[in-house]
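Please produce the structure of this protein holding zinc ion.
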Amino acid sequence: MLSGMPPPRLLVPAVVVAVSAASGLAAGRSVETSEAIPMDPHSHADPNRVRVTHVALDLELDFAARRVAGRVELSLARPDAGAPLVLDVQGLEIEAVTGPDGRPREFELGPEDPTLGGALTVALAPGDELVAVAYRTGPGAEALQWLDPEQTAGGRHPFLYTQGQAVLTRTWIPLQDTPGVRTTYEARVAVAYDPPAGAAGSGDDGLTVVMSAEQLGRGEDGAWRFRMPQPIPSYLIALAAGDLAFEPISARSGVYAEPSIVQGARDELVDTEAMIAAAEELFGPYRWGRYDVIVLPPAFPYGGMENPRLTFATPTILAGDRSLVALVAHELAHSWSGNLVTNATWSDFWLNEGFTVYLEKRIMEAVFGEERARMEILLERDALEKELAELDARDQVLDIDLVGRHPDDGFSGVPYDKGALFLRRLEQEVGREVFDAFLLRYFDEHAFRSIRTADFEAYLAEHLPAAAAEVDVREWLHAPGLPEDAPRVRSEALQVVDDARARWLAGEPASALDSGGWVTQQWLHFLEGLPDDLGAERMAALDDAFGFGESGNSEIQCVWLRLAVQHGYGAADAHLEEFLMTVGRRKYLSPLYKELVKTEAGRARALEIYARARPRYHHVSAKTLDGILGWDGQGG
Ligand code: BES
Ligand code: ZN
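Below is the modeled complex.
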């Protein structure tokens, strides 16, 4: 099962790791404890008085009970010696809190809010530089998704993964769950799981555990060990466990996936090393050691998640022709924007995502050429404009106010694509050479820091005064809508598609469109540009000519299925149902269910499918879809 895994490193006793990592020796840097941490409305912690600097986990994954249980040791910096330690917790069962002497410390669990959980307040003794919390997760822990074997490619073993961003880490680890606080971490993880008799598919000796950290391998006690020597925000602590194999791509990168798909996944992602090299050339050294990707089962609610050293990805990017690998460029780019320089609060989310979309396009351009990057930029611009037409004005600003709201309320194309457009506008003003130098320095000077939008504004004014003078930075950051000066790109390849679509709509046969060499982005543009009154007959004509219904490309499939619903093209019904029953990616599910509920018959069908599919979806997707369907748990 583990053939091809990177050789396990020598095991370092956990205690030694704790000391060296906490003091920063391992990474040659220390956790910054002198700077004030901005107030985060989505955390109970008060890190300017007592701050967690290192997290040491000792956990067991109990697949039968669907619980994570164990202890966490938190190392502390205490600028205010009289202050208690305040942690974020949600649904956790706290068994004991002890000090460095092993004796109990008094603690109090506050009331829990459905979004933010509650505060665990610990009374510290004078010399306490460490506390240990023994706990187990509650039944509804939203960070955890436990999959049945039926939801995996192999169908024989269960699977578990975590999703921390934005405020879910507190549902599986008690800690200061704010991106303003950075900690190093280490973990020992044991697995309690009895493989079914005869399920020893591949020399089976249990499940493999991976984390967003250096993988130290499996010890003689059978437990897995991990070490993250660079300080990261809590939302980047992540874990996955399942029947995993590994295939290398280069000396520093490779792919984890279930054995039956790992080879295909590796072939699909073979350009990853070229992407890392391109990113380093542009934005400075890759500072995290390895860059691996784990391809998860299709229930994963996101396209990708930038867990450090180990991007988590949906299998829906495996199109067979490498056409959807921009997602890897995106998650890799977070190794600079997001993981190295982090949004200090979720109102600053655009600092993570807007920068990352900008970087992603630069990587795509470097590896796959200008035209590919231009097509992807244009597709996103079109999507953003459609989305802006529907969004509340208060949600159209980059520097969004999320006080009293869920961080997920700020999730839209605005932080991503408006954010990237802003950076492209700055680049346009000063030229690429100057802007690249600015970015390089920005990453270097803010490395391993969490910053706010205002910090960026000040840095921009100081280091790129020419741009700050010409561009209306305040409008870009604080006003709704798209500023007039949002840069436009043109794509010849997409212009060709616009012309072909117009000819087809005017009556020219599909066979005459000369679309034989079109790439995925062109097909997406073709479909997105079809008129609202197309009708089922013309959908059938398209299906006959181009076989969209059979497309193995998830992006094309998603748009096609939405159009099928919109135009009442019933031939796609079976595909739609299968898609909704297997894919858990919210970005795909939302538009499909939204389209379905527009008619009475569609709503009934949506509810019927949703009742069966919902138990397979991640909480994140279910929460959004509950809203779309008006789901109250009783069948709508
Ligand atoms: N960090 C995000 C995913 C995320 C955002 C999770 C907010 C939880 C809260 C990730 O980098 C991302 O943006 N993923 C995109 C892919 C991308 C190519 C735009 C996705 O999942 O679709
Ligand atoms: Zn992202």
